[in-house]
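Exercise 3.2. Students should predict the tertiary structure of the chain below and write it as structure tokens, then compare their answer with the key that follows.

Predict this chain's 3D structure.
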Amino acid sequence: MPASLSEPRVGVWLIGARGSVATTVIAGCAAVTAGLHAPTGMVTETDLFADCGLPALPSLVFGGHDTVDCPLPKRAEALVAGGVLPHGLPSAITAELEAADREIRPGGPAPGDTREPTELVDAFTTDIRDFARRCGLARAVVVNVASTEPTPVGIASREHAPTETASLECGHGWAASVAPARGGTALPPSSLYAAAALRAGCPYVNFTPSTGLHHPALASLAESSGLPYAGRDGKTGQTLLRSVLGPMFAQRALAVRAWSGTNLLGGGDGAALADPAAAAAKNAGKERVLADTLGTAPEGETHIDDVPVLGDWKTAWDHIAFDGFLGTRMILQTTWQGCDSALAAPLILDLARLTARAHEAGLTGPLTELGFYFKDPVGEGPAALGEQYEALAGFAARLRGLSREVR
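Answer key:
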């Protein structure tokens, strides 16, 4: 159904806007809005978030950046062929797909792109601001759903690394932040987009393991922006299961001796994660959940294999060796088979709505209560899914209270 004339329009600016995940987000929002499908997987559509003042799904307007030029309707048809989207859906929501496609702008840096980092951030910022103005938006949220990039050398996976750029003050200006200081690390593309989001006055969500706001050069910029942000690396499959099983072993006082895992996946993410540096960035969050929930890092590694024929589907296998009473040795094996885009899309819609509402309510800084959605959440918070859900419920109550104050 169309948004009410009185309903403020909220933008969702997707980095990687023509990828499988982004296309599923846009198509899924249109399908749920039209009543063609139920909002399965969307926590924000459960009773937990009733009366929290979240933007309605029909009020969401999509745009974004991408370095590829395949139109969204064509991309959606490819996802139908791959079993990701239902047959007939693209033709039923052609207008919505075409509208979003018109709001996608060229990303970068593309091969041969000679623009300096400051020029790229300028261009990205202008694109986001123009989107908000052109569409008459009350606010916009920038969400990174692009393919995983390698972690830059010298950048810690969880905290800001202590390089010279970390001491930059807000007064030096954003341009100083994106130019690497002597001995510092140049900003990767994900951080250029993150800087543009902040400059455009938009909350930022990093659904990938890529650096984004975690770069030390952006620490002061994020702190002084007065904007809420969340991330990183969406928890959709293997790590979701680990965040449940890890606490189970700890709470039952069972000694985990080893925990090994393998991921088989295709598509753009599989190709990107064939790069060992990108795979290392992805695996860091998977393994951290085990260390945080078990209290120690067990033996074993997680491997990621690119299997192009799998397309958007993935299989994750875990082999857990543990000791029971009197040292009895036992094994638990799990197999998770799922469609990455279908798992991620409802979470991204949740995060866009929650972050937009946080911005509207004047909340700033890291939204630690949204750790439920991430492998490597910003700020300090629990790693066990049950505790993260409790924190999310507390956040819902907070938003509900703010909504009542407005009334």
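Discussion points: The chain has two domains: 10-233+343-406, 238-339. The longest helix spans residues 385-406.
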